[in-house]
From TrEMBL:
Residues 1-20 form the signal peptide. The keyword Transcription regulation does not apply. This is PIG-L family deacetylase. It comes from Mangrovivirga halotolerans. Keywords: Signal. It comes from the Bacteria. Pfam families: PIG-L. The keyword Chaperone does not apply. SUPFAM superfamilies: Class I glutamine amidotransferase-like (SSF52317), LmbE-like (SSF102588). PANTHER family: N-ACETYLGLUCOSAMINYL-PHOSPHATIDYLINOSITOL DE-N-ACETYLASE (PTHR12993:SF11), N-ACETYLGLUCOSAMINYL-PHOSPHATIDYLINOSITOL DE-N-ACETYLASE-RELATED (PTHR12993).
Amino acid sequence: MNKLFLLFLFTSIIFSTLSAQEEHIISPPPSSVIADEIKGLKSFVRVLYVAAHPDDENTRLITYFARFKHFETGYLSMTRGDGGQNLIGSEIRDGLGLIRTQELIAARKIDGGNQFFTSANDFGYSKNPTETFNKWNREKVLGDAVYVIRKFRPDIIITRFPEIPGITHGHHTASAIIAREAFDLASDPTAYPEQLDHVKTWQPKKIYWNTSPWFYRGRDESFDTTNLVKLNVGHYLPSMGESIEEVAGRSRSMHKSQGFGSSGSRGESFEWLVPVKTVAGSEKDFYSGINTSWAQMGAPGIEKSIDKIISNFNPLRPESSVEDLVKLKNEIRKTDLKNEKIKTKLSQIDELIVKCLGLYIGLHSDQPYYSPGDTVKINFEAVNRSDIGLRISKINIPGTDVSRNGALNPNKPFEFSTDLVLPPNIDFTDPYWLNGNQTDANFDVTSFSLIGNAENDPVYQAEITLDVYNEIVKLELTLTYHTTDRVKGKVVQPMHIIPEISIEPLQKVLVLPVNKKKSIIVTLTSDSPLPSGELTINLPEGIKCENKKIKYEGDGVERVRSFEFHISAEKATKFEENNVSFEFITNESRFDQYTVFIEYDHIPNQIDVRASEMTVSAVDINIPKVKVGYIMGAGDDVPNLLTDVGMYVDQISVDDLNGGKNIDYDVIILGIRALNTNAELARSMDKLYNFVYNGGTVIVQYNTSYGLNVENPGPYPISISRGRVTDENSDVKILNKDHIALNLPNKITEDDFKNWVQERGLYFPATWDDNYTPLLSIKDINEDPLKGSLLVAEYGEGYYVYTGLSFFRELPAGVPGAYRLLINLISLSHSSEKP
């Protein structure tokens, strides 16, 4: 089991301007921030920003509303970004969705917003909303949006995109359509009536489109701001020591997997909102029809009390405001507590009281991960760092016999330890949205306790009741793991629940050449000594194994053990029937899962508990005996997958190119976006051209048209476009059936383009020199065919290949035809004939 530290996993949504998915250690922010948060007690406005993906949100507007206007602000993302590319690693699909989810949560912690999602899965680039809704379960996604609106109860909804098809990504347009339809339906009791057992109907007052000059690039229309709402978002935030733009830049920079670092700016700047729809009585201006103050709520005296607390706040002694905050709670209790927005202020005041007290409370486990049935040693620590006496009247830690109370004297630690026995049927802590019967277009999320949530609820929480000036303040505290790293210092990690024994196949996908024997490595891992048992492999029809069961005798010491199965096939198998599974059976239990760890410094480490399965496709394929050097770009798993199929592949660097001569490889492959991400490689293209000229083969996979570090990505001119084919089932026409790349060592036909996933390819060249031969013609429905997906040029004695085909997606999915085609390209210089 990988024992790298697991950082904190955030809890479910907290609807408060005072915090945005804060870490569940109770510890105060600086006094300047507390002073700013007190101002939020005067605000009742809620704003919900709506778009399609992580990175679509306008962090300037979110920061403006949350940090400057002190509005409760949220971002509803239709998807978790699962279908995009990954600039920082090799994770795609579910793994990438986990990364981007956490990047959004980290961004909201900076800009002050709350994060929400629907159950829509990012299935990849979509050219129009019709295609999007043909994939997404439209009614389910719309229902999720209605539920979030009913729960968050925004007064204003703002979309990032317009409803006009063709301007941008189909998911973008669909998000605007969903937002407008949900705006209409959230107040209708006949729409999704099953939700009303959990939330009440709600009618937002107005919906806007957040337009900008970007939407008018290359169009005849000028950016006309007449009749638009104009917001100056260039303000300075003294409590943070930054401008709104600078805070927003830090927020946007959390989208590291997409390379969206931003430094922000200073000085006035503006955002523009196009009115889309308003309810009657709300048409006059941006805030008309919205109760924005205590006076409009019928309690003008409350606002005066808050102003007094603000004017008397002492940043050197924030605890001096606690007594007035307690009095304010009692004043608010005399108002209309049936009004949900007023009632929310009571919990916001409790948070402020705790912050003003300088209170630290932590509930720590002795390890970062456990398995069902384990005993967890818990350490409780509380320190009152104010000069106000207060008392813990009750501590409730479910599953323990703790019954503690006592005074929290100034700066005196209150500590104790106890044991918690985890239930044997406790759920693992992998993301809730991955635990159902998901499709490539939707996650299976039906529980109303989860719909809209950014991530799982905490595994364990304690409830602490404080007595402050005879006022009861209740706190929820999440059980976490703390450690001290020699480099990072204090690290707070989540308490994760994982399988007791992990059964992980080394290969997740294997293309098995027919009549060739291949080995499969399976590793058993446990935090305790492995018990005796039997490891079994379960095979689909057509795949054979010499020994399907392997007995293991535990020695009471060994915790990691690898096993090897040898499989073969006499003929190709059906792609749809290629799952191989594993299970380990002991006298007492059966295990058939393993844990994936995703670890990056800018987000909490993530886990995903997956079934102990792999994909095996028996394929008629010939493997050449060539040496491949792979220069990584933005990150993909292609070199490992080629190694698994039996090829010799080394990951190399620019330094290994040796001026293009005497390179110890037959083929050089550039990983995805290598010419976007590797400036040194871009300066070394002449070495690759020399290598080709002297008989080698170079294969360049897709690069984006923007951020390209070379003027021309080939020995002959090529211009990259944004052209792509998003329908993975689109017809593929072979243009030159006699070309060597389509015949040796494997005969490529239209059948090799069956069962592709997510897309055909992206960023195809638009124009190219006549020395390149286009081999394929591909088109999306109702569009002209594109011929730039696969270009091959003879250059000197070798071959230069430029391709936008999505090998980085197809190989991890085990698509046989993609392997056969890529291997043919690798074989070009070593095939027996040229066209």
